[in-house]
Amino acid sequence: MCDVQEEMIPKPKNNRSLKEGFCYKCKTEKPDLHVRNSDFCKSCFIDSTIHRFRNNLMKIQKGNVLLALSGGPSSMCLLDLMSNFNSVDPVNKRQPKYPNVHVCHVDVSLAVPQIETDIVDKLKADVERRNFAFSSVKVQELFGNSTTVIAKDDKTILLDVSEDASPESRLIKSLDSVSSLSSREDLLNIYIKKSIINQAIAKDCNIILFGDNSTLLAIKTIALSAKGRGVVLADEIALEHIITPGDKNISVVKPLRDILGKEVAFYNQFKDLKPFNNANLTTGLKKDCSIDRMTSDFIIGLDEEFPSTVSTITRTAFKIKAKEHSNLACSLCDAPLDEVSKFAEIMGEEVKKQTWKDGELPINHVLCYACRNISRDLKKTLEKKSLSGSLPGFVSRAAMKEQIQDYLIE
Amino acid sequence: MKNCSICKTARALVKIPSTLEPSCKECFFLQLETKVHNTITLNKLFKRGDKVAIAVSGGKDSTVLAHVMTTLNKRYDYGLDLFLLSIDEGITGYRDDSLLTVQRNREEYGIPLKILSYQDLYGWTMDKIVAQIGLKNNCTFCGVFRRQALDRGALLLNVNHIVTGHNADDIAETVLMNIMRGDFSRLSRCTQIQTATDQTIPRSKPFKYIYEKEIVMYAYFKKLDYFSTECIYSPNAYRGYARTFLKDLERISTTSILDIIQSGESYQSNVEVKLNQEVEGKVIVGNCERCGYMSSNKLCKACVLLEGLNRGLPKLGIANESKIRKQHGEIKTPAIQNFKQLSIDREIKSPSLN
User: Fold this and answer.
1) Which of residues 161-220 of B touch A (CB under 8 A)?
2) Would the pLDDT of A72 be above 80?
3) H-only helix segments in A162-287
4) pLDDT value at residue B217
5) Do A49 and A118 belong together in one domain?
6) From A334, B39, B154, B279, which residue has the greatest number of CB atoms within 10 Å?
């Protein structure tokens, strides 16, 4: 495992091309692109992408579909594939499998000012051209509507529940209350997901399609692990998983999970789809500004060097089964609550739970492990510094001191 | 001047790496020891009267582990019989120096020490192995041999538990690496606090939740000396990507090491390993025909590797394994001392043991 010359990641197999200089599939056309160690021509590539998408969708039951559309490359690709899926079979004129497709966009421009202002109108025009229904919700609406509850319990400290504040100011306040950008990203993602689920309930949809592609899922695998959200990983990257908000059963489906980010980009280029500027909280910042951003850079960088990284990670992650957990859900992110675990006890959290704040529910009974980290972030203002350094020979005390320097208070 | 966030009276000297809370020296020691104590008691790692071998290399983790284990054993009266167990791989300029630290530990804590060498067990030192096979795949030999050597040493000492100094950073790194390499079976196993099968002595990691930084700090303030160099045969290539990434993560969020362990713990495999039982007509884990050590094949990996070395064909043990197993499966002469007989055989050099 630690050999000098051993590769951590297996080397890609030999090029599969059977006929030199031609498309791997049809063997008659000149290749237009190179993915998955093979050359493809444009039409074979588009066919294979459509095929993989159809294949995944055929495993899902019928119902009303809500398609989550951010305007980024993956969701634009999803939108095009979905309209393609519904338009097939002009000969038999059969009713498409999903006649009712509702496209929903969550407007996060209040939280992310870099987003283009006219994105909603452009998306609306695009969607209606494809004869799908379109709606757009603002993420802050989550805070305004009294039936839209984020915290099931008003004693959680994370949300400002004062009646008089406007939804806008409550969103901003909620995001500003955490000190790290990673926590802020987490919160915003949770809010976006909640908004989409609420829309699905409102539009009576029992299937939600997300545009997460294979590369995004590999990034998600590592990022969720790094944030202590491992317990939801299996669900988050599954092709289909069932959520039960209220009394409804909703399938969350990721039909692009077998399509690489690179393939999405090629598909969009060949089909002349123009994704919008999908800015997020970390746009324009350094790569080590948040866990999501750094993981994304790390995986994409590694994948350039070792082209099978993404598929290795996703193949491994697809095998993961979450351990049995309680039926109680985290008030913030709906992940299953860990019964205040050995882990928390070992770290001495049990004591803190009691003294968190008088008159409030113990945080351990309301929030899951990862969200407790966010809640801790609310008050943490200590400066974080990096540590590195290697130790030579018999470690001199000076060298040891240097290694732990940042944690010493002189 | 900041005061300690735990006792509120003494002057704070350090920030606890996982929470960044200011702490005085004494409270820092206490919180680390308490975390280890909690890990031991909540997981019910030991019972009274257990004989426990501490696997020590002379490095920081095991040096601090030996210190903490003796302290806790006294403070909470675990009633454990502690032993130090070292493996001498026979690497000049690396292991011989670090074993001096181990010798000092023995004198300091008054715990019996057993040093087992590859030379005695297998007739080969790592220096000789590297001389024969070069720097490729040498770690395969060392890793396979060490795993068995620890079990053999434990049998010689007649202990029923081994503790190792793996810390939280090591485990988090392994979780990440196993995801990136696609090693699912190891991924679901690597966060377990204790690994044991019927055939081997249970092994535990009491430092599972302790940061590497905390261990260095503990050694620094307790004035414990340890030996630290990279193994001369395994320079930095080791776990490079996962390690760099983990260090970067730690810079963003101090809890990320614990977060990864927490995540890793929830990654369960639904495959159960069955010993000496037929599953679909195959015995998954049995015993090596030659030395009796736990093995999923007729011959265990160590015997195969050794056979290759002794025949001057070291590559055989690494590539095309099934072929070699077939070739050598019939040979009856035992190459290594029988594993089960070892428990009777005592050649303990340590003066404090009879």
Assistant:
1) 175-184, 187-188, 209, 213, 216-217, 219-220
2) yes
3) 167-176, 181-202, 214-226, 233-237, 261-270
4) 92
5) no
6) B154
- CB of A350 within 8 Å of a chain B CB? The answer is no
* pLDDT, tens only, A313-347: 998 888 888 766 667 777 777 787 766 556 667 77
- The alpha carbon of residue B22 is apart from the nearest alpha carbon of chain A, in Å, by 8
Residues A170 and A217 in one domain: yes
C-beta atoms surrounding B298 within 10 Å: 17
Task: Pick from A182, A293, A320 the residue to mutate for testing the B interface (most B CBs within 10 Å).
Answer: A320
Are A101 and A186 within one domain?
A: yes
The one-letter amino acid code at A194 reads K
Say how many C-beta atoms besides its own lie within 10 A of residue B143's C-beta: 13
- Residues pairing with A208 in the sheet: A66, A252
CATH number at residue A238: 3.40.50.620
Q: How confident is the model at residue A348 (pLDDT cuts 50, 70, 90)?
A: low
A208/chain B closest Cα distance in angstroms: 26
Domain boundary among A294, A323, A352: A323
Q: If we measure between CA atoms, which residue out of B124, B73, B107 comes closest to residue B84?
A: B107
Fold of B42-271: Rossmann fold (3.40.50)
Contacts of B229 in chain A (CB under 8 A): 391-393
Chain B residues lying within 8 Å of A409, measured CB to CB: 2, 11-15, 22
Same domain as A169, residue A31 = no
A78: number of Cβ within 10 Å: 27
**For residue A392, what pLDDT band results from cuts at 50, 70 and 90?**
very low
Q: Measured between alpha carbons, how far is B163 from B52 in angstroms, rounded to an integer?
A: 7
E strand or H helix at B87: strand B81-88
The verdict on a CB contact (< 8 Å) between A4 and B258 is no
Contact list in B for residue A227 (CB cut-off 8 A) is 253, 256, 259, 263
Q: Is residue A342 included in any domain, yes or no? A: no
Q: Nearest to residue B173, comparing CAs of B244, B89, B100?
A: B244
Q: Is the domain of A269 the same as that of A282?
A: yes
The answer to whether residue A388 is domain-embedded is: no
Do residues A96 and A158 touch, judged by C-beta distance below 8 A?
A: no
- Structural domain boundaries of chain B? 42-271, 279-328
CB pairs under 8 A between A and B: 225
Distance CA A253, CA A212 (A): 9
* Domain boundaries, position A126: 63-323
User: Would you state the structure tokens that stand for residue A90, as one six-digit string?
Assistant: 């002009």
In terms of domains, do A39 and A182 share one? no
Query: Could you tell me if A310 and A214 are in contact, meaning their C-beta atoms sit under 8 angstroms apart?
Result: yes
Cβ distance B312 to B284 under 8 Å? no
Domains held by chain A: number: 2
